[in-house]
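Q: Give me the 3D complex with magnesium ion.
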Amino acid sequence: MALRRYTTFPAIASLYMWIRGPRRTMLALRLQRGIFVPNRFSNRLARQYNALYTMQRVARLFFPPDYSSFVSKFDTFLLDCDGSPFPFPHRTPLMFRTGVIWNADTLFPRVKETLSYLRSQGKQLIFVSNNSTKSRRAYAQKFENLGIPASEDEIFGSSYSAAIYLSRVRNFPANKKVYVLGERGIEEELKAEGINYVGGTDPNERIDFARTDYDALGPNPEIGAVLCGLDQHISYKKLSKALVYLRQSPEVLFLATNLDSTYPTHGNIFPGAGTTTTIPLEYASGRQATNCGKPSKAMMNAIFARYQLDRERTCIVGDRLDTDIQFGIDGNLGGTLLVLTGINQLEDCARQGIYPDYVTNAFGDFAVLQNGEY
Ligand SMILES: [Mg+2]
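A: Here is the predicted complex, encoded as structure tokens.
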């Protein structure tokens, strides 16, 4: 309190000297009646304090030796592949500043060099994504189109995460089926893990809801799980079926590939997986879905079930505090790196109370290590 009083007083005094006429009288009256709350000044002070605290807590990578000692601390990097929503256009004026590696189909500068440097140092790279519409195969195709060498084994999407969670964590029985609300990405991953499914891209599910469907829809003992992802052909029929299955028994698993509210792509924001399928079903059924995407523990467990990793020597690289960085903190990873080419800037750390271990301007900055001088 004392600090605030002493530092705001000169500011108010100088404002008082600067303002003339009736506005000065108004200010004097307000000060006298004690209703003048100098929010602007105390906010500035809070910002300065938060900035100092953040500087103390977060190591900023800036010079080449910083990058080289950072890289030497880790063997595995989990790289965020998702774009981020774009709520503050005045703060991030460049449309392409919405991720770590790319925005939609454009690579960020020097990312290719960074990836090849990390590979040359024998680092393991795992590309993590919440996008459920793409399978690993589809992602590998995207990497190939952009000229980045990446194998299917290095890609870990939320559809794959859900399939791994079902098969290796929950030991999903072979005689049961998963009812899918989503696109081909989910189907491909379930098929790869040998899990039976219905729904999904089946054209019979996309037709209008008929009067006879009220009688025709009923419980199906074959269904052992309902898996929700981003569905671009969502229909009343699909939601009705899913609700019937969720209500038939508490043993029917309720899974979501991710709970993203929005799907940012092509410079715009579209409804995400949570909005199209999961949240309506949670609301209708009163049940809560298990999230298999970032920042859930289920996804981290699935990653550790799939790869042999040393937690202490693993670092997540992301652009978003409440998904990527939180994911790393909850998963007890050895490090978290925030890149400032996406949704969050350094001042957001204090606002959200989430602090990464390291911060750098762009993922492409690591390319300075390429010539091997450091
Ligand atoms: Mg991201």
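A quick observation: Residues 39-57 form the longest helix (19 residues).
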